[in-house]
Amino acid sequence: MNVPFSSLQRLNEISPAPDNTCAQCSSRTRCLPYSLDEQQVGRLDKIIGKRCLVRRNELLIRVGEPFHCLHIIHGGQFKTFQNNAHGKQSILGFHMSGEILGMNAISTGFHEGNAMALEDSEVCKVPFLQLLVLCAELPLLQQHFHRILSEEINRGQRIMRFLGTSADTRFAIFLIDLSTRFAERGYSRNEFKVLMSREEIGNYLGLSMESVSRLMSKFRRKGWITTEGRNVSIRNYAEINAVANEEKLTILGHINPQEH
Predict the structure, then answer these.
(1) Of 71, 72, 59, whose CA–CA distance to 26 is shortest?
(2) What residues make up the domain containing 208?
């Protein structure tokens, strides 16, 4: 099965120099420089520090740490999570290149969760106070940053909504979300590597690891996906998307739950 390179492999190909600027970055259209002209991007470059390499399974952010910087994922993937009193993880999300880590600490001044690299990754550190000053001087940057904050709020609301849906719907939403995000980053919509373990996926979706395994088997039997290790191929996007939107259709009255 032909599977795209990992995020870091792609990163090494397109940005071999450690001191690349925002103007040269492949993630620019999904990141803070979006809609800025070259002069404005140059001003943003001046406040962004050098990229930081975070090895697989290393923590970039630790709960309780003071908040000083946002972290933009340049390449690689992360999971964010909290630990309960017994040390059990509660996974909050999975994050890809162009996405920003640490925004939930803006209100309190302290990080309320951990961020761990799922593969060797690189991030750009953005000092928050300097970013606020620059936003005040560049309205387009301020508008885009507010848009990013709004998307983060909406993502959290979507997660809360799908936790009340069926297991099939949750898993379908998860696959469609990954497919969409890979496509937005120039990868195939239908073939990608899932770096999260089944236990991690289940934790995020509010399902057991066994339930995730059964759902994967069910989707394979139906011919909707094929899997090879952690590589997933979507064979019937339309059917999976229909299941992902099933609850929405039920609410709208397009499906009778007793007949489905």
Answers:
(1) 72
(2) 163-252
